[in-house]
Write a structure and sequence with these properties.
Blueprint: E1 3-7, E2 13-18, H1 19-25, E3 28-38, E4 41-47, E5 58-59, E6 62-65, H2 77-83, E7 93-104, E8 107-119, E9 134-141, H3 142-149, E10 155-160, E11 166-170, H4 179-191
Parallel strand pairs: 3-8
Antiparallel strand pairs: 1-2, 3-4, 3-6, 4-5, 4-9, 7-8, 9-10, 10-11
Amino acid sequence: MEQLTILNENNEPIGTMERTKVHESGHWHETFHCWIVHEEDVYVQRRSAEKIDFPSLFDCTVAGHLLADEKKDDGVREIEEEIGLAVTYDELVYEGIIPDEMIRGKWQDREFAHVHTYDYALRQSDIRLQEEEVEGLYLMKRLNLARLLRGHIRESVAYRFGTGERVIVTKKDFVPHTEHYYEGVVQLLMKV
Protein backbone atom coordinates (compact mmCIF):
# COMPACT_ATOMS: atom_id res chain seq x y z
CA MET A 1 0.00 0.00 0.00
CA GLU A 2 1.35 3.40 -0.98
CA GLN A 3 1.98 5.69 1.97
CA LEU A 4 1.76 9.46 1.47
CA THR A 5 2.90 12.28 3.71
CA ILE A 6 -0.15 14.16 4.91
CA LEU A 7 0.06 17.90 5.44
CA ASN A 8 -1.94 20.65 7.08
CA GLU A 9 -3.30 23.60 5.10
CA ASN A 10 0.03 25.42 5.67
CA ASN A 11 1.93 22.65 3.83
CA GLU A 12 3.47 21.34 7.06
CA PRO A 13 3.84 17.55 7.52
CA ILE A 14 1.55 16.03 10.14
CA GLY A 15 2.05 12.30 9.50
CA THR A 16 1.68 9.56 6.92
CA MET A 17 -1.38 7.71 5.66
CA GLU A 18 -2.28 5.09 3.06
CA ARG A 19 -3.18 6.72 -0.26
CA THR A 20 -6.82 5.58 -0.40
CA LYS A 21 -7.44 6.86 3.13
CA VAL A 22 -5.83 10.21 2.24
CA HIS A 23 -8.49 10.73 -0.42
CA GLU A 24 -11.28 9.46 1.83
CA SER A 25 -10.29 11.81 4.66
CA GLY A 26 -9.43 14.78 2.45
CA HIS A 27 -5.93 15.36 3.81
CA TRP A 28 -3.53 17.58 1.91
CA HIS A 29 -0.63 15.73 0.24
CA GLU A 30 2.09 16.37 -2.35
CA THR A 31 2.05 15.63 -6.06
CA PHE A 32 4.47 16.05 -8.96
CA HIS A 33 3.25 17.72 -12.17
CA CYS A 34 5.27 18.26 -15.34
CA TRP A 35 4.18 20.16 -18.44
CA ILE A 36 6.38 19.36 -21.44
CA VAL A 37 6.49 22.24 -23.92
CA HIS A 38 8.41 23.03 -27.06
CA GLU A 39 8.23 26.26 -29.00
CA GLU A 40 4.50 27.03 -29.38
CA ASP A 41 3.29 23.56 -28.38
CA VAL A 42 2.39 21.83 -25.13
CA TYR A 43 1.95 18.08 -24.70
CA VAL A 44 -1.10 16.98 -22.73
CA GLN A 45 -1.91 13.45 -21.71
CA ARG A 46 -5.23 11.76 -22.10
CA ARG A 47 -5.76 9.57 -19.08
CA SER A 48 -6.54 5.91 -19.58
CA ALA A 49 -10.20 4.91 -19.74
CA GLU A 50 -9.30 2.35 -17.04
CA LYS A 51 -8.39 5.02 -14.45
CA ILE A 52 -10.70 5.24 -11.44
CA ASP A 53 -10.15 8.99 -11.17
CA PHE A 54 -11.03 11.11 -14.22
CA PRO A 55 -10.86 8.38 -16.90
CA SER A 56 -10.28 9.57 -20.48
CA LEU A 57 -9.86 13.22 -19.46
CA PHE A 58 -6.94 15.40 -20.53
CA ASP A 59 -4.35 16.57 -18.00
CA CYS A 60 -0.79 17.83 -17.73
CA THR A 61 1.86 15.82 -19.55
CA VAL A 62 2.76 13.80 -16.44
CA ALA A 63 1.42 13.80 -12.89
CA GLY A 64 1.68 11.55 -9.87
CA HIS A 65 1.73 11.34 -6.11
CA LEU A 66 4.89 11.80 -4.10
CA LEU A 67 5.30 8.92 -1.67
CA ALA A 68 6.02 9.46 2.01
CA ASP A 69 9.75 8.85 1.59
CA GLU A 70 10.11 11.10 -1.50
CA LYS A 71 11.06 14.72 -2.11
CA LYS A 72 9.80 16.78 -5.06
CA ASP A 73 12.82 15.85 -7.22
CA ASP A 74 12.01 12.14 -6.79
CA GLY A 75 8.82 12.77 -8.74
CA VAL A 76 10.88 12.81 -11.94
CA ARG A 77 10.39 9.01 -11.91
CA GLU A 78 6.78 9.65 -12.98
CA ILE A 79 7.95 10.90 -16.38
CA GLU A 80 9.67 7.63 -17.19
CA GLU A 81 6.91 5.51 -15.63
CA GLU A 82 4.03 7.19 -17.48
CA ILE A 83 5.49 8.08 -20.87
CA GLY A 84 8.84 6.25 -21.01
CA LEU A 85 11.06 9.34 -21.21
CA ALA A 86 14.19 9.20 -19.02
CA VAL A 87 14.89 12.69 -17.67
CA THR A 88 17.04 14.00 -14.83
CA TYR A 89 15.56 16.48 -12.38
CA ASP A 90 18.18 19.06 -13.39
CA GLU A 91 16.64 19.20 -16.88
CA LEU A 92 13.31 20.44 -15.48
CA VAL A 93 12.39 23.95 -14.40
CA TYR A 94 10.73 24.02 -11.00
CA GLU A 95 7.85 26.50 -11.20
CA GLY A 96 6.66 26.23 -7.60
CA ILE A 97 3.70 24.86 -5.68
CA ILE A 98 0.10 25.34 -6.75
CA PRO A 99 -2.52 24.20 -4.22
CA ASP A 100 -5.44 22.35 -5.83
CA GLU A 101 -8.65 20.82 -4.46
CA MET A 102 -10.96 18.46 -6.33
CA ILE A 103 -13.90 17.02 -4.40
CA ARG A 104 -16.39 14.48 -5.76
CA GLY A 105 -18.74 13.17 -3.11
CA LYS A 106 -16.72 11.28 -0.50
CA TRP A 107 -13.56 11.40 -2.62
CA GLN A 108 -11.45 14.45 -1.75
CA ASP A 109 -8.19 15.32 -3.47
CA ARG A 110 -6.30 18.17 -1.81
CA GLU A 111 -2.88 18.53 -3.39
CA PHE A 112 0.13 20.75 -3.04
CA ALA A 113 1.23 20.25 -6.66
CA HIS A 114 4.95 20.72 -7.31
CA VAL A 115 4.69 22.06 -10.86
CA HIS A 116 7.53 21.76 -13.37
CA THR A 117 8.08 22.56 -17.02
CA TYR A 118 10.39 20.81 -19.44
CA ASP A 119 11.28 22.31 -22.82
CA TYR A 120 11.78 19.34 -25.11
CA ALA A 121 10.69 18.22 -28.59
CA LEU A 122 9.46 14.68 -28.08
CA ARG A 123 10.30 12.05 -30.68
CA GLN A 124 8.19 8.96 -31.24
CA SER A 125 11.17 6.85 -30.20
CA ASP A 126 11.14 8.60 -26.77
CA ILE A 127 7.66 7.43 -25.91
CA ARG A 128 6.54 4.22 -24.23
CA LEU A 129 3.16 4.82 -22.60
CA GLN A 130 2.09 3.12 -19.39
CA GLU A 131 -1.24 2.06 -20.85
CA GLU A 132 -3.06 1.60 -17.54
CA GLU A 133 -2.29 5.27 -16.80
CA VAL A 134 -2.06 7.10 -20.14
CA GLU A 135 -4.16 6.53 -23.28
CA GLY A 136 -2.09 8.92 -25.38
CA LEU A 137 -0.19 12.18 -25.64
CA TYR A 138 -1.61 15.10 -27.61
CA LEU A 139 -0.14 18.35 -28.88
CA MET A 140 -1.92 21.65 -28.44
CA LYS A 141 -0.85 25.21 -29.13
CA ARG A 142 0.04 26.79 -25.79
CA LEU A 143 -1.95 29.94 -26.57
CA ASN A 144 -5.03 27.89 -27.47
CA LEU A 145 -4.76 25.85 -24.28
CA ALA A 146 -4.44 29.05 -22.24
CA ARG A 147 -7.49 30.57 -23.93
CA LEU A 148 -9.47 27.36 -23.43
CA LEU A 149 -8.61 27.03 -19.74
CA ARG A 150 -9.46 30.70 -19.13
CA GLY A 151 -12.82 30.29 -20.87
CA HIS A 152 -11.99 32.68 -23.73
CA ILE A 153 -12.78 29.99 -26.32
CA ARG A 154 -15.18 27.03 -26.11
CA GLU A 155 -13.08 24.47 -27.94
CA SER A 156 -9.67 23.89 -29.43
CA VAL A 157 -7.84 21.29 -31.47
CA ALA A 158 -5.42 18.70 -30.12
CA TYR A 159 -3.38 16.34 -32.29
CA ARG A 160 -2.49 12.87 -31.09
CA PHE A 161 1.25 12.56 -30.89
CA GLY A 162 2.52 9.93 -33.29
CA THR A 163 -0.59 9.63 -35.48
CA GLY A 164 -1.67 13.23 -35.95
CA GLU A 165 -5.31 12.28 -35.24
CA ARG A 166 -7.25 15.54 -34.82
CA VAL A 167 -9.48 15.85 -31.75
CA ILE A 168 -11.71 18.73 -30.68
CA VAL A 169 -11.42 19.40 -26.93
CA THR A 170 -13.36 21.59 -24.54
CA LYS A 171 -12.53 22.60 -20.98
CA LYS A 172 -14.89 19.85 -19.78
CA ASP A 173 -12.55 17.34 -21.44
CA PHE A 174 -9.84 18.28 -18.90
CA VAL A 175 -9.44 17.08 -15.31
CA PRO A 176 -11.49 19.53 -13.18
CA HIS A 177 -8.60 21.25 -11.44
CA THR A 178 -9.50 24.50 -9.70
CA GLU A 179 -9.48 27.81 -11.56
CA HIS A 180 -6.56 28.81 -9.30
CA TYR A 181 -4.53 25.81 -10.48
CA TYR A 182 -5.29 26.40 -14.15
CA GLU A 183 -4.57 30.13 -13.92
CA GLY A 184 -1.17 29.33 -12.39
CA VAL A 185 -0.50 26.84 -15.19
CA VAL A 186 -1.56 29.32 -17.87
CA GLN A 187 0.80 31.94 -16.48
CA LEU A 188 3.76 29.59 -16.43
CA LEU A 189 3.03 28.12 -19.87
CA MET A 190 2.94 31.58 -21.39
CA LYS A 191 6.31 32.56 -19.89
CA VAL A 192 8.24 29.40 -20.82
